């Protein structure tokens, strides 16, 4: 194990992350004001950039919690800079989740930061480290849905409202999927410290395939329908109707052309 300690430079926010935030802000402004010549392109860039921001914060939450739990190596690995290129699997952590959003409109979790678990003592700390990531998605979802359940939508432009609804859907799906007790996902990481050594050894070989297993299950029509029925119920309870999430996804997929149905406000 490394003996690296964290320094101020290890915690300095990466210019890469600042750039992603800037894209989120600019395209969010363009979506709000209608400044963009192609509203769908602005929505696509806004939602994608905001989704990447949430992925970075998800992994940062894991790393930050691990740091305070005893793993001082996370700083030297660059995990505290919010730079997505520093993750163990940048492809899994960023590229694949974005592709899943484009293909299926679902916030499927990505890769992970590498935590030196041997440095951490106590089962509760191990569980909290795993839970920190999806709890960040829950917080992000609360922020995205706040204008809806607070009934503060007066003056919010239609396209921005649709984009926010679709982004909320991504955060809710990410939180639920991450909390599934499937090997390789955070939900399993929460319960793993409390399992017997024998069970952990039996489950360990399946961990690399957990995400693929979940993705394959979601292709089963009956499971997919049941899953999104749950998601829709949660979003409706937060004031977001099917119309808003549907039109948000339609705007996001700007390359498919304009959907006239969504041009009529509900």
UniProtKB/TrEMBL annotation:
Mode of membrane association: Multi-pass membrane protein
Keywords for this protein: Cell membrane, Hydrolase, Membrane, Metal-binding, Metalloprotease, Protease, Transmembrane, Transmembrane helix, Zinc
Top-level division of the source organism's lineage: Bacteria
GO molecular function: peptidase activity
Main location group: membrane
Signal peptide: none
This protein's record includes keyword Transport: no
Similarity comment: family membership: Belongs to the peptidase M50B family.
Protein name in UniProt: Site-2 protease family protein
Species annotation: Streptomyces coacervatus
Lineage summary: Bacteria, Bacillati, Actinomycetota, Actinomycetes, Kitasatosporales
